[in-house]
Every structure is written in C-alpha cells, then in structure tokens.
Specification:
2 copies of one chain form a homodimer. The first copy, chain A, is of the alpha/beta class. The first copy, chain A, is built from 15 helices and 11 strands. In chain A, strands 3-2-4-7-1-8-11-10-9 form a 9-stranded mixed beta sheet, sandwiched between helices. In chain A, strand 5 and strand 6 form a beta hairpin. At the A-B interface, helix 2, helix 3, strand 3, helix 4 and strand 8 of A face helix 2, helix 3, strand 3, helix 4 and strand 8 of B.
Chain lengths: 377, 377
Amino acid sequence: MNNNLRIRVAGTGLTKFGELWGENVESLAAQASREALKEAGLEIEDMDLLIVGNMLLGQLEGRGHGGRIVADALDFFGPSLAVEAACASGGLAVRTGLMAIKAGMARKVLVVGAEKMTDADSETITRALMGAGGGDEQMAGATFASLYALMHQSYQRKYHVENRLMAAMAVLSHKHGALNPLAQFQKTVTADEVMESVLVADPVRLLHCAPISDGAAALVLATGRKPKVEIIGSGQGGDSLSLAPRKDLWQMRATQRAMKEALDHAKIKASEIDVAEIHDCFSVAGLMALEDLGFCERGLAGKYVVQVKDYMINPSGGLKAAGHPVGATGVKQVVEIVRQLQGRGGNRQVLGAKIGLTQNVGGAGATALVHILKVND
Amino acid sequence: MNNNLRIRVAGTGLTKFGELWGENVESLAAQASREALKEAGLEIEDMDLLIVGNMLLGQLEGRGHGGRIVADALDFFGPSLAVEAACASGGLAVRTGLMAIKAGMARKVLVVGAEKMTDADSETITRALMGAGGGDEQMAGATFASLYALMHQSYQRKYHVENRLMAAMAVLSHKHGALNPLAQFQKTVTADEVMESVLVADPVRLLHCAPISDGAAALVLATGRKPKVEIIGSGQGGDSLSLAPRKDLWQMRATQRAMKEALDHAKIKASEIDVAEIHDCFSVAGLMALEDLGFCERGLAGKYVVQVKDYMINPSGGLKAAGHPVGATGVKQVVEIVRQLQGRGGNRQVLGAKIGLTQNVGGAGATALVHILKVND
C-alpha cells in the first residue's frame, strides 16, 4: 500500500433503506451522491472518477454499463466504472476508490453503492441472489438461507451455543435500528420472537435473516494532508465460492484474511476498534464475523453480543434491521462509521469513538472486505 | 499516476475466438489464464489479485460474483474482483490491474477478460447487449446496430465519404484476420462484398458489424525494474450513455479524452505508435477511432485505412474478423500488441514495432479505454 497518500472522507450520503416504490437504481444512487457532494462542498464536475458498486442490474433488469447509468443520472461525463463482488460490491467499490487515489489515477472519487431489489418477486430475487453462489450449490437447489443454515448448524454444534445466544445478533441489530430514522425496520425484537419466527431453512428463522431492500449510499473520497476522517486500513480476502471445498463451516477465512491485511495497513490492533459495522446477513454470519475479526474468543460471540457495551456493534441496525440493498451495504457501513466518528450518531452515538471498522461479505463468505477509519483531532 | 512503479507484462494467454460449443465463461477464462501464467513462469498461488472483465454473466446466465467464478475454476483463494463497462470491460480490467499495482495493493495481478455469447438466441443477445445503451434508446427499440447506423450516416454526410471507403475498415480487419489462427473469421472480404451484404440497420450492413463470439484473454501484470514489455500509458474517458445529449455523432469524445490521458502518461506523441488494435465493432467506429486517436485528419480515415502500411492497424483482425467476445476484447487487444512487440506476430508481424496502442469502447462511445505499450531493448 502506498502510504504517502492519505485518504480523506470528504462527504457522505445515504438514502432511506426499505421498500422504495418510486425509485430505481439511478435515482437512489443520484440522491445519495448529491448528498455526499453537498457535504463535501464539491460539484460532480470536480470528481475525477465515479465508481459504482452494484450486483443485480444485469440479473434483475437486463442492464449493463452500471457506471454510466449512474453517471448519466448525475450529468457526469468523466470516467466511470462498475465493480461487482455479490453482496460485497459496496465494500469493493470503497476499496477500488482507495486504489484509484493511491495509484495517483484520481484525486477525488465519488463512490456509490446502489441496489433496487423489491420490484422482483420472491422467486426471482432468490434466484438472482443465488447467482452469486457456487454452481454445484445452484444445481442442488440451495439458497443463501440454506447455505447459512449449514453454517448455523455447524457453528452451533461446534461451540454448543444455545438458541437464545444464536438470536442475540438479531436482537442487538434491531435494538439499534429502532433508533435509526433511515433503517428499514425501526423496531426492537426479543430473543423469543426470533426463536419463534417462521422457519426459513432449519435452523434459520425469518428473524435471523436480513431483508430484501432498496437503497443507496455514497462517499466522496479525496487526498488530504491533514484529514479529519480518514480511511487508514483496507483489506480484502477470498475463499472458495462453494462451501464444499472448505475444511469447516464455523469460521470465514475470507474475513480473517481481510482483517489481517487491514490491521497491517492501519498499524493498529483489533482491540483499538471503538465501533464496527459488521455483515449480519444471517445471525450466524454476524457471530462468526465478531470472532473472525478478533473481537472475542471463538464460540463466545453470542455472549459477547449480549454484553456489548453502548452501540459498539452495528449502531446503524446492521443489515438485519437497517436493511440490505446488496450493492449499497458496504458503502453504507462506511457512511455510518464516518458519521459516528464525526459525532453525528444521534441517539445511537458511540461516545468518544475514534477508530471504526466495517466488514462486508460477498456470497457465503467467498469475498470479504474490511475497512478501518479514524478521526483525527 | 504513480510513475515510480513500472508495469511489466509477464505473460499473455488467449483462446480461439468463435462459436465454442463446449466451453463456458470459467473454462475459457481458466484456459487463457493458465497460458498467461505458464508464459510468466508463475503459479496461480503467486498472484496477489485476480481481476475479471465480463459484461453478460448476469444478463445471460443470471450469475454474479464473476471474480470468484473464475477464481474457483483456477483454485485461487486470494482476493478477486469483477469490473464492468459494457464492451470496454476488458480494457477496464487491464486499467484496474495497473491501478492495483500502482497503488501498492498488489505486486502480481492476473487480469482476465471472458465472455460466452453464442449460447443465446439472437433476440436475447441483442437485448442483453442493448442493456448497456441509454434507457431512452432501449425504450425506443434501438439496438447497437441502429445507434451505430446513426453515427455511420452522420459521419458519412459530414465528410462526404463514399461507400467504398466506409467499407475499408472491414476489408482491412478481414485481411489481417485471415492470417490469425485464433480469429473467428479467417477469410478476406472485398469492399464490394461489404457493400452488397444484407442490410442490418440502414446504412449498416452485415459485413460492417463485428460478430457475436465466445472467447477469453489473460495477462499477468507485475512490477518490474527493467521490464521487457511494459504498459507505459493508460487513459479512460467517458461520455453520455445515450447519443441524444451529444453535440454531434461524427466523433467519440470518450476516445479523445482517453487518448489524451494515455499520451500524457506515456509522454509520447500519437505519431510514435507503430501498431494499434482499435475497436471496430462497426465500420464507422473504427474510422472515428483512427481520427479520435490522432492517426489521421478528420474525415480521412477511410483513405488512411486503404493506404495503411504493413499490419499497423488491427493485426489480429480487430473485432470485425477476430471476433468480439465483449468482456474479452479489451484484454485480447493488449495480448495481441504484447505479442507484436515481442516479435511473435507470425505472418502478420509489424516489423520493428516498438510502441503499440489499444483502444476499447463501451456502449455507443460512453466509455473508452486506451493503453500504450512499449518494448525495451
């Protein structure tokens, strides 16, 4: 990593997440982008590059050239590109923005993640999402709920975790989401409600699952000599697309790899993180993430979550309560952390947060992105 | 651009282009990748990053996570990403590879472009490709043939170019493709044959159009202190997705912008280019490219093509004769130029070529990528 250039977050933008009937990918992306540009005090013409994170334009709408679709909505005629890594497309867009600046190929970059999912019926959206799974898994009729059910079972058996603790992640994210005016579900749920909700893929129940959502998030990244909020670490890890080749299913090596790179880059330890947005697409994903990131011992994430202080984990409501428009999620996580570091967390502010982290996963753990941010005095 | 790091092309790989019944995106990508790794004397484990350029996995196959699909086929567990900019996805993948290395985020990168198009029926593939056009153009029932027909008309009227000269680009590419064992069409065509071929979208005729193709191309990029073949320039330009907002249709500003950046980066002049692979998806696209790149005066590209010496333009056969698997094209252009600079052009070798160029276009000119390569003594 070229550490001579420091990356400043100059502006953030975020739409409401949820079922947004009157919007499409480009209107959502434009809305988030305009907010980020306004915060940065910049115009679209000031941008050297537009990077769009999106997964489903091709599958759901038969459209391509995602970078230009958003560029046109913003009347932007500079270069653009679209990046894709399933549900980690947003985190990948952030990393690609860093890359462009560190390479000296751009000084100001607009990074947008956007997705419009709720127009599709359940079968269509389930099939489209599963397009990011392994070919063997698709042939066998697996869905992501069923793949995460395998991980849920495997994790729970390995560490003898009771159902109440497996539900803790959803309870925590909903507790925080209830305080976030942009969240899809602004209400709390109890562990009993999670454990009694309808079975989706045994043992995964409805309230273990993040919803289908529409939404967009944007960041203006720029070089900065003395940045207020800066991205100090970025890491990306990979693993097999299918679960079958993996040695075990109770951890995600992609997250571990991404975290190691991000910590090395940031020159900090996991214990220095004050606030984190993690990828709780399913309850077990959130629990494994906390262990893979080194926040707690293996098998103890459920207990950790119950005891978690303040709003340290998923202050936004995570994917579970705030919503999961897949291409937007990784960017939205960074937006939430930036606003926390700026003291803009409202009634879910983590007091005194100086260092924050985001973790974004694609597929059933085949891709993971970790970013570390810091606010300077 | 961070010019302290020089980018070496360590290996190249290329499949046959054409109608390849037994293959899919990942088998083609793996085949080209293995050849590139072998040429580089490296193993897949040596790669820090895999970048995949692909446009149609989502539209045609309902699949996502393109980076991991190829990674799995290669048993690669490091980080991967997919980039997309319609028919410029390949060129974009090359540029993103440069970016990763220049940013210090990778030292060895495998860049692959791959596409499988011939399994779809004509309507499906036409619609999928047009997914990269403007929304207004899609609603109006336009296809890329009809959009390029507007440009063909506009260009021909502006510069009073006779039909025979409009056909010259196709004649040239076929002349060279006839000598390329990996080309889809290894045969020559005459200007009369072009002018008498069936009308697709008046005045665009069948032999003005590049075909629908399957194929893949790969590059191993690495840092190098004294590289033999290096990428010395990279540029990317944008323009409106739709044609309507453009002031005129007889030039492509995206190509002009990309060329300016690439020349500035390479610190050379257009007149120093010895060999070029240009994006002749339709005849008029090739003619405009030659002018936008500064190889000849405006309106004179047809005459330039008739007089072009040696195999200087499209030695591979271009998109027209060698084939156009959209995500692969931009990478394949670089593979051809590298092999020309290495003196491996066979009976279509440009004698003494030292500096080469590639130009890759997405949509109807909404994205353009230019790369400049050099062989050192």
